[in-house]
Amino acid sequence: MEFNKLIGFLGILKKSIKIMSKNGKLLAIVTSIYLMIASFFFVWNMSTIKPIIFDFSTKAVQITSLDPRGLPFAKDLASILKDIKVLLGIELAFLLALFLTSLFAQTAIILLTEVSYKNKKISSNDLIVGVPRSSTRLFITTFHVALLRVGYIFFGYIMIMVPMIMFYGHKIVSKWILWVLMIFLVSLYLYFSVVWLMSLVISVLEECSGIEALGKAGKLVKGNKLEGFSLNLMFNLIAYVFFDVLLKRSTLIQSELTQAFVRFFLMSCICLIVVFELQAYTVFYFECKKSHGDEIELQGSVEYSKLSNVPFVIGEDLP
């Protein structure tokens, strides 16, 4: 039974691929815009900060050999502080632009997957009207999820540092403990992420956000967390392979233009993974609702997952 749930994500993936054609044109447009904008901002950010970081590093090395009371020291220090301000400004602008792009694109993808799952069509006007309202709820839930992730990272840091300090000087023991803890913490993170990701879908499809969406997500995935865990594991492994391989390749390339193309392709791949993950989790949302006996309104019909929840009236209501 547990094994069936563990590989049950394959059915979710199959259904996610199957429903893509329902609103395929709109989905392709939204995905293309998302990929282009996010990848452009990523390449622009990397290209812009590279000379600033190089200049900052050079001056930081030079300043150590200068007299703190001299004019050259003061000039280099002022230049370093200016570089830091410029770098922070660029990074803030990049993160804000990427966040807003992702927020609207992810909302649109979840809404498109919802209507496709229900075998319905949606016009571009209806999608444009629905995205801003749902994006507000998604923003609130994303903020709460971000806080939980930061808290988990802090918890993981403490979990790793305590045994490292306790077994300081025992290299072999420390290495084994580190590997075991890393596997445990990553697995636990993927397990918790089932609720976190589901809360994002719920905040778009239902009139709730934040703590309420997280609470609903926890109840909805009850009994189906292994399927969600398998989805998370698969998508994170794919993302890691793309990121690790392409990033290492890009560092070996000398041409700036080729590096930019590789980075653009890398970001596009990651965005595609995010798109398909959101589609899969939206399908997973409906599958969880069906497993709890909720009805799903399809085009021209209503699908029930548990007949035992449907009342049968016999005798007195018959003509």
UniProtKB/TrEMBL annotation:
Glycoprotein as UniProt keyword: no
Membrane-spanning intervals of the chain: 26-44, 92-112, 146-170, 176-205, 226-243, 263-286
Keyword Protease carried by entry: no
UniProt entry keywords in alphabetical sequence: Membrane, Transmembrane, Transmembrane helix
Name of the protein: Uncharacterized protein
